[in-house]
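It is worth pausing here to work through a concrete case rather than discussing structure prediction in the abstract. The textbook approach is simple: state the sequence, then state the predicted structure, then interpret. We follow exactly that order.
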Amino acid sequence: QKGIRGLKPSDLGFFTAAVTTDSFQSIFKGNDEIYESLLNDPWLRSAAMPKGGAALNSNDFQIALDWIMEDSPEKERFLTHDGPQVCATDADTFIGAKLKSHVERMSSEGEGWMAKNQANGLKMFGCDTAGCFKSKLNGKDVFPLVNNLLSGAGEVRKLYTLSNERSTFWTRSSADGRYVSYGSKPNSIIVDLSPVLTGKTARRIEVEADYDPAFTPDNLSFIYQGEAHGTRFCNQSMLAKTNLSVIDFNSEDCSSSDLKVGLYQGLGSSLDNGEIMTINGGFKSDEGSTLVQDSAPLFGDSANIEISRIRQSDSTVFEKRSVQKVSTPFIGNWMLSPSNKVAIGTVSGSTNQKARHGGFRLVLTDAITGSTLPQSYTDANTAQICVNAGEKPQASFDERFLVYYAYDKQTTKVDSDEGVANLYLIDLLGNGKPVKLTNLPKGSYAQFPHFRSDGWLYFNLYNGRTGERQVLATDAVLKAAQ
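Step two, the predicted structure:
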């Protein structure tokens, strides 16, 4: 109390808006009487913001803080940061021998989910003897070609145009590619693309959730996150019910309670027993339209993750069996490969104590013992991928490729019609260097890329000028693998 009275409200800057929130009160945990006295003290009354209006609650302040942090270009120039000085140049890219052996088993030797789903006869959406997305109705393509997007070989097909809403934070599809899910307000949406094959409109299923959808690689389950119901898993088979229009999680096909997995979760399933693994920790939130240029990730030395293992005791009961907490200093935005054998994080590096993108760090999950990662960035169980920029990396079902999107770097803040985001590909059996998949004009943003089981890549195309969002599919990665 004595120390805080030594501060002037101006010393807190923007954070004066937080002095009446629960977060500020938590500083005085165990000393409620001190906080109560401050509430009636001239210092707190002089510091409280906004002036002349109701004080911000914790949720409102967090919204304002997110906006300040995301809408402050080059904020890392003004913040000191003691992250690792990794990936000084692209030449520092390293792929450990044990991690590369894993990738070879999953891809070249056919042990991954791509091969397993194929062996199990998983039928891929939109494919027939003529190929994928080649169907025609009345002489016209069911899934129209979209030209002039790729920087190399391949084609792009339009699957779906979002109607009067935006896909927030990410978009994901089922392993067979039939269902496309995304976050939205007031409800999220799962789109069943199958009616399009017969000339009908895609079927939209509303979900009482907010964000972070994902499907398991075995085509059996899906997850959503939200304030109303928390973390919920459901059996994917329920989506085929033609009379299903809303998912309220009261169905016997869904977990009966909140499984309490943190937001921005990565998801994979064991090839041996189907056990679902999730990973979550600190993250830099990009919902897809407010951030239209490169921004360095900021994760500190206290960053950590939770690895949860979830099983179904029968066809309808999802249970969290264990939680492993792991210290991951300066690494966040964690994702998982489909087999759950590789964890993928974004490194918050630094140069001269200024934050910068330190590339991606890959770690075999079997090498995460106890509560720590392998310490060396050149450990055989790890990889260091030096890319200097990039959001939300996703692994292919054979775990050979990583795909991510990256905003162009700008020296000043730009409007959405001036920025651009492109897709990039990394071959973990090659040299680990990024290859640019798309070549988009200003005002266009390729976002939220993810694979389906056969290697076709789905992604969003956001038009910063019109606000239109489309879900597209491309075989560019398949062409690159040839």
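Step three, interpretation. Residues 247 and 401 are 33 Å apart (CA to CA). The two ends are 67 Å apart (CA to CA).
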